[in-house]
Amino acid sequence: MFRAYLEFAKKSFMNNLVYRLDFFVGIINTLIMIFVNIAIWKAIYEEEQVLGGVQFRVLITYIILAFLMQCIYTMEEYIIESKVRTGFISSDLIKPIDFRLYLFSYNLGTLGFRMIFQLLPMLVMAVFLFKLLPPFSISMTFYFFISAALGFLVLYNLNFLAWISSFWFYWTFSLVTIKDAAIMILSGALLPLWFMPQWMVDFIKYTPFDSIYYTPISIYLGQMPANEITMNLLRQVLWVVILFGIGHVLWRTATRRLVVQGG
């Protein structure tokens, strides 16, 4: 059975190959955004090498990693909405597959493509163009990859909650926009939590948002104390479980609603 989902991921990977020119344009766009943000922060730092206890090169590496992760974590936001609005969701639900696993496999295939054709070339260019710092240590590299994978799962399950809202809302654009804005601000993707007011950081710690970007990048840079890494990884796992559980309940409710209304 799982071989079928592997084929779905492979098909998604191959479909992206057809439109690989879009991803090359995406590389250019990401590099431009990195350059612009570095220029802004350089103006803020002026001639200083340290601001708020954060070295300029550390901040630049944070910005680069945040943009690279955003690039490969990009997902198709309206795939469920389009199926619900066209009615194709009914036929998908009666197929002998788990639609949620199909959707996850589809996004994994896209992730694999982006890692090979976008992340790798951008990493090389970032090292030479922007002097990207290496991981703080070998052990931090290991923890970073685990945390980054968990961050993707947190983001995916958070996105899934917005996607299945299409069973109740005809258009989900506004909800998706609000969700994306919250992620950009509260996850540290736009501004590292280092520069946020302490009361806001304390609030964010009670949400899943910092688990997406801030936690893995902080581990990469060695900005997170070693004795806190395990606890933060467990926080990420906990948020994956919680968000998955909420998504499971809403999915059951949504599909039951669809059946009751006649599909």
Would you write up a description of this structure?
By secondary structure, the chain is an all-alpha fold. It has one domain (2-260). It contains 11 helices and 2 strands, in the order ααββααααααααα. The protein has helices at residues 2-18, 20-45, 56-73, 79-86, 88-93, 99-130, 138-163, 173-186, 198-204, 214-221, 226-260; strands at residues 50-51, 54-55. The protein has a two-stranded antiparallel sheet with strand order 1-2. A hairpin with a 2-residue loop joins strand 1 (50-51) and strand 2 (54-55). The chain is globular, with a radius of gyration of 20 Å. The two termini are 26 Å apart. The model has no long low-confidence stretch (mean pLDDT 88).
Largest sheet: 2 strands, antiparallel
Terminal Cα span: 26 Å
Q: Helix count?
A: 11
Let me know the number of strands: 2
Round the Cα radius of gyration to an integer and report it: 20 Å
Q: How much β-strand is present in the residues?
A: under 5%
Helix-residue proportion: over 70%
- Give the overall silhouette: globular
How many domains make up the 3D coordinates? 1
Offer a few descriptive terms:
about 260 residues; mainly alpha; two-stranded antiparallel sheet; 2 strands
Question: Gist?
Answer:
This protein is mainly alpha-helical.
List the helices and strands and how they pair.
Layout (H helix, E strand, L loop, with lengths): L1 H17 L1 H26 L4 E2 L2 E2 H18 L5 H8 L1 H6 L5 H32 L7 H26 L9 H14 L11 H7 L9 H8 L4 H35 L3
Antiparallel strand pairs: 1-2
Helix pairs in contact: 1-6, 2-3, 2-6, 3-6, 3-10, 7-10, 7-11
